[in-house]
Amino acid sequence: MAVASPSEAQSLVVNETRIDFIDRGSGPRLLFLHAENGIDPAVPLIDEMAKSARVIAPTHPGYGRSEIPKGMRTIDELSYFYLDLLDQLDLRDLTVVGAGLGGWLAAEIAVKTTARMARLVMANAVGIKVSDRETRDIADIFALTEPEYLQIVYANPEAGKRDYKVLPDAQVLAAARAKEATARFAWNPYFHNPRLKSRLHRIRIPTVFLWGTQDRMLSEAYGRAYAGMIPGARFELIDRAGHFPQEEQPQVFAEKVLAFAKTK
Amino acid sequence: MRIYQFTEQPYFPGWDKHSGSLRVNFLNRNCDPHIAADLFHRYYDEWQLADELGLDIMLNEHHQTATCMSSTVVVGLSVLARITKQARLLVLGYPIGHRPDPLRVAEELSTIDVISRGRLDMGFIKGVPYEFPSSNQNPVGVMDRFWEALDFIIKAMTTHDEVFNWEGEYFNYRHVNIWPRVWQDPHPPVWSTTGSTTQAKLLGERGYTMATLGSGYNTRPLYDAYRRGYHAKWGKAAGPDRFAYLGLVAVAKDKDEARKRGDLVAGYLRSSGIVHLPFRNPPGFLSAEDNARMLRGETAPRSYTKDRRVINMASASVDDLIAAGILFCGTPDEVYEQIIDFCQYCGGMGNLLMMGHAGYLTHEQTVDNLSLVAREVYPRLKAWKQPDAAEITAAAIAAEKAPSHRAASTRPGDLVDATLTAN
User: Fold this and answer.
1) Which A residues in the span 163-182 are in contact with B, Cβ-Cβ below 8 Å?
2) Helix or strand or coil: residue A117?
3) Which of A8, B17, B287, B328 is deepest in the core (most CB within 10 A)?
């Protein structure tokens, strides 16, 4: 496999769909499934993890520059795309790290088969409904203004601010595509699959939940309830981080992931 | 030229009570059902008058809003199908991009067509941006859903000799055989709306009547795109009857009174865009490329006057709205001249969708407005000779590469009452 320069992504064709992906570092294999805000190849997290692991981080179909198969509308469908990707790259003994919407995706993959997975990390993951039908578990981000949104998803809202007037075109388009792809997968039912909860018991690999304590899109109670449905899952907090601990505390996040990836 | 009388059946008594949004999240605590009943009765009376005056009728629907109490248009169509005698009943539009069940739509509209003895015109739309939060339909991919629903409805209305099966991407039925069958043969005329040249061309290829709303002196590129699409598919020129334009209309015998009425109907433009910001442009409603341009702040203005001045519909003066072809306002003579002038600019336009009531216009003013249009403007418009369709189409084809015919595209938050942008 070709080695990409640190800031560049390679591309890969799975089922006639071309997607970007990062393959960096060496050591235990990590598959990083990015959150609903997409992934920038230059984010510190990837380099932090690549210090002692081989990090494979695809850009999901519909995000960044990745194509999306016609008609793909659910995370369930996306999980089959990833099962094919794992087969195609013949990846084994993986530690799968899913953040936010990527955590939902990781769970959808794992309930189908964990044959290629050794461990699972779920970071501020969405994907299930825990409260009653009139209680919203997940804040409606599509009903918020940009400042309101940044306020609830970041411990430090400045961390998420972007000046789109000066960003390169590709990044502005990626931001617009991320929003559209997220709506495609998560508009209705809102950020969850009603069927997923009853399947979580099938995940029988070591699992840890990492949870940014200042996430106001999801509550810690939601995360703990989610973890409680996966046999033996542990739950760890990351301070001074909101919904995207991988962005706000990349070093702490990477340390926890790497320590977990080395456990027997 | 035909004229369709249109009102959104607004609940204007609530308009001063909002805190930043008149749609989706403006609580219905602000609606007094007794006042609503009086208003509904009044609006039906005014439509009945339009029918008696020889005007046609247009209805629409919006959801969870004080700007438009017609939340399910089939109710209004049902009432009018029975109490009117001659008017065409145009629904523009029926937001099938949101409907969970197009079979039900086919049944409803067939029934209306039969009760009205063949007076239905079916305008289908995907729905405005702010309907997605209330319907909870996914804005991403709504056009695919729209086209499948439309194809299904037409097939349901035109299949008489078999019970058919439909297993599509979005809709599944195994025994389709609707009763009653439609009155008009092969089916009621199909209309749609657009703010994009790509979509306009497609509508031309389908041959549907195309309406634009509030596009003013930005309309011609859309019509010309339609003309090219129509000519390519059908090998002939699209006549003026293929085009419709929604304009506000305020007429009075007296100039000053007409201006006063113009200001009152403009209340529609001033209230229509009052929507909680995130609901104005849900992801997927516009293309990612268009949204990227918006993120960079590169939003093209939508409303121009004839001399290419940019105006903001939500705050423009009566004079500017007249200059932009959004409001036709004045004495009967003035309004006739304004409409003819606009039709000339369009290269022909055969259906005026007249907002003859809107905003705070009173019942008495509305009655006078409709009566003056019907008696003093309409006969002259009918007698007016539209531009030659063949010449106009030839010019549109020749001008395709001219830079002045750049694509016009729709922007959220504008008057995109029934916008259909190509996704």
Assistant:
1) 164-165, 169, 172-173, 175-177, 179-180, 182
2) strand
3) B328
Domain B2-405 has CATH 3.40.50.300: no
Question: In sequence order, which residues have a C-beta less than 8 Å from that of residue B44 and are 6 or more positions away?
Answer: B79, B80, B83
Provide the residue ranges of all domains of chain B, joining segments of one domain with +. Answer: 2-405
Count how many domains chain A has.
Answer: 1
Closest by Cα among B215, B174, B276 to B421 = B215
Instruction: List the CATH number of the domain containing A118.
Output: 3.40.50.1820
Q: What is the pLDDT of residues A174-199, one digit of tens each?
A: 999 999 999 999 999 999 999 999 99
Strand partners, A117: A94
Cβ of A173 within 8 Å of Cβ of B289? The answer is yes
Greatest CA span in chain A, whole angstroms?
51
Looking at the complex, report in whole angstroms how far the Cα of residue B312 sits from the nearest Cα belonging to chain A.
23
Secondary structure (DSSP) of B352-405:
EEEE-S-TT--HHHHHHHHHHIIIIIHHHHHHSPPPPHHHHHHHHHHGGG-GGG
Cα separation of B74 and B94, whole Å?
9
Given CA atoms B198, B199, B201, B206 in this order, what sign does their dihedral have? positive
Domain boundaries, position A64: 10-262
Residue ranges for chain B with pLDDT beneath 50: 405-423
Q: What is the pLDDT of residue B410?
A: 41
Nearest to B192 by CA among B246, B136, B250: B246
Question: Is A1 contained in some domain?
Answer: no
Task: Test B284 with A145 for CB contact under 8 angstroms.
Answer: no
User: Closest approach of chain A CAs to the CA of B141, in angstroms?
Assistant: 8
What pLDDT does residue B404 have?
A: 55
Whether residue A3 is contained in a domain is answered as no
Q: B36: buried, middle or exposed (CB in 10 Å: 19+, 13-18, 0-12)?
A: middle
Q: Is residue A116 a part of any domain in this protein?
A: yes
Residues in chain A closer than 8 A to B140 (CB atoms): 73, 180, 183-184, 187
Closest CB to B278 among A143, A165, A177:
A143
Residues A80 and A86: their CA atoms lie apart, in Å, by 10
Closest partner CB to A164 (pick from B139, B288, B295):
B295
Q: What is the mean pLDDT of residues A68-83?
A: 97
Q: Nearest residue on chain A to B298, judged by CA atoms? A: A165
Encoded tokens for B245: 């334009």
Which of the 8 DSSP states describes residue A102? H
